[in-house]
Write a structure and sequence with these properties.
Structural class: alpha+beta
Radius of gyration: 25 Å
Strand order of the largest sheet: 1-2-3-5
Number of domains: 4
Distance between the termini: 47 Å
Number of helices: 21
Shape: globular
Number of strands: 10
Helix content: 55-70%
């Protein structure tokens, strides 16, 4: 963006050109992270610090898991000796283990904050991995969303001036230099434009890109080391996870890309009158500064204030759940960071979304498999769901489905259809941990941010809508999206036969199934 254009309240020519060059689905090309020898002694010292924390953390989790395992399933003299040592070092009582794990989780969170933005983001990502970490770790690491130390006002003013081409006092009528939010990559200030419009101004942390590049060089070497020990964390592709993390974090650092994500999200929900995305002010937006409309309202988790203003927290949560069903099953583009600070209920009751730096995309083939899995869950089709888990990559294709079906049936019987208030999350986490150890179960890399989003939504639901039943909300959406998908396929088949003149009968059973599905969708809409 040109400096002249940035002083105008409209969009400059450079901004227009940049919006045309960037597309909402494009990935930001990240710099090379292989310059190991150029790091110098500070880089080596930081590498030692990171590796020490990582090894201590990994060894602790490994020994804890080994201590809990059935001795008959531990093979090898060294592993048996380690298990004996772990059982003597660690208390085995449930409450004692919980306290010990929580203390370790606090230690890890503090170390991640000290290491800086890269590791705060990693901690936030780890908070989604219930397949890797015990529940106390998950609960503690979620605190990294709100407890990030701010950087000084002078640095923020300097970055604003460099990016927008003039001192902030000349560009804005007012800025409150007390940040209203401080996150891992930047912090947000309240301000007003010369026109009087209230705005939120997000400023990136100083020297952020250089710091993250150095950290990624170190992490890539650590990832290569961990690949030599696949049993340390089962089912984790460390190189793949790091590549996905690097692509996402460099994209998240480009605030122009974030602004485009917001506009794409607004377009996807243009027909939803109860969902709102703040306006972007492109003349005041660059790669390191993002200026958007300031939205007044209430956090979605502030139950008392919502009720005082006449809003139903349960209605708000159901609206939020429906938006995510649409994002995941229809749009193939979703907001990956729906924590309470990024959601607000406006004075007129609309639900506003903020912070589109972290988004996820779902390819059409994956979306189709997810829709089928939703339908199988709703219909309690165990055999179909096991096949879905294999197709989606959660289970090794070589696994015998007959071994998995009884386990899925048990989970269906125990948890499916329960309200949030009725689910014992601690028990569920332990049950899933057994699955991870006993079966070739893993979470594919492309599901990492989807699971992150769903876990954030789960936390919101527990706070404001404990009577929420996922199946009740998901059933009509799953049917509708399955109907749309099959209708498209049938329409394509009909056109193919009409214009290509191929012989052969139509699949009348498929047509009859589609008709029944259409009737169910119609009846679902009548109930709304």
């Amino acid at each position: 963006m040109s400096r002249e254009g940035s002083r105008k309240t409209g969009m400059g020519e450079d901004a227009l050109r940049q919006r045309e060059e960037l597309t909402p689905t494009s990935r930001v090309e990240r710099p090379s992270i292989e310059r190991w020898r150029s790091l110098g002694w500070r880089g080596w010292w930081r590498a030692l610090e990171i590796l020490t924390i990582a090894l201590f953390f990994a060894a602790y989790l490994y020994l804890d898991a080994l201590a809990a395992r059935d001795p008959r399933k531990v093979r090898g003299r060294i592993r048996r000796a380690l298990r004996w040592l772990a059982r003597h070092l660690f208390a085995q009582g449930v409450l004692q283990r919980e306290e010990r794990l929580r203390a370790q989780a606090v230690w890890l969170r503090k170390r991640l904050v000290k290491l800086g933005p890269t590791f705060i983001k990693i901690g936030q990502a780890l908070a989604t991995r219930a397949d890797l970490l015990p529940l106390p770790y998950i609960q503690e690491l979620t605190r990294l969303q709100d407890e990030v130390p701010p950087f000084p006002q002078a640095e923020a003013a300097r970055i604003l001036g460099e990016e927008l081409g003039a001192p902030a006092e000349r560009l804005f009528a007012f800025i409150n230099w007390e940040p209203i939010a401080s996150a891992s990559l930047g912090q947000v200030y309240y301000g007003r434009l010369p026109s009087g419009q209230e705005v939120a101004i997000k400023v990136q942390r100083p020297r952020l890109r250089e710091a993250i590049q150095v950290d990624l060089v170190i992490l890539r070497r650590i990832a290569r080391f961990l690949k030599r020990y696949p049993d340390l964390f089962r089912g984790v592709d460390w190189t793949g996870v790091l590549d996905e993390f690097a692509a996402t974090i460099f994209e998240e650092m480009n605030y122009r890309q974030e602004a485009l994500h917001a506009e794409r999200f607004r377009e996807n929900f243009r027909r939803w009158k109860d969902v709102y995305v703040p306006k972007i002010y492109w003349a005041y937006t660059t790669e390191r500064v993002l200026t958007m409309e300031y939205i007044h309202g209430v956090k979605v988790t502030d139950v008392e204030e919502l009720r005082r203003r006449g809003f139903s927290p349960a209605h708000i949560h159901r609206l939020l759940a429906r938006t995510y069903l649409k994002q995941l099953l229809e749009d193939g583009f979703f907001h990956a960071d729906p924590h309470p600070g990024n959601l607000r209920v406006m004075p007129d009751g609309r639900l506003a979304f903020f912070d589109f730096g972290m988004t996820g995309r779902i390819e059409a083939w994956l979306q189709g498999l997810m829709i089928e899995a939703f339908v199988h869950i709703v219909n309690r089709d165990v055999a179909g769901l096991v096949d879905d888990l294999i197709k989606l990559g959660f289970l090794d294709p070589k696994v015998d489905p007959r071994l998995i079906r009884p386990l899925v049936e048990d989970l269906f019987r125990e948890y499916l259809g329960l309200k949030l208030s009725e689910i014992k999350f601690k028990e569920l986490t332990y049950d899933l941990a057994e699955v991870v150890y006993e079966y070739p179960f893993r979470i594919p890399t492309h599901f990492t941010y989807m699971i992150r989003a769903l876990m954030e939504l789960e936390g919101i639901g527990i706070a404001i809508d404990p009577e929420f039943n996922f199946i009740d909300v998901a059933r009509p959406f799953a049917r509708e999206y399955l109907f749309k998908r099959e209708a498209r396929q049938l329409r394509a088949e009909l056109l193919h036969r009409l214009f290509r003149g191929e012989n052969g009968a139509l699949q009348w059973d498929k047509l009859w199934r589609l008709a029944r599905l259409a009737l169910r969708v119609y009846l679902d809409k009548l109930k709304k």
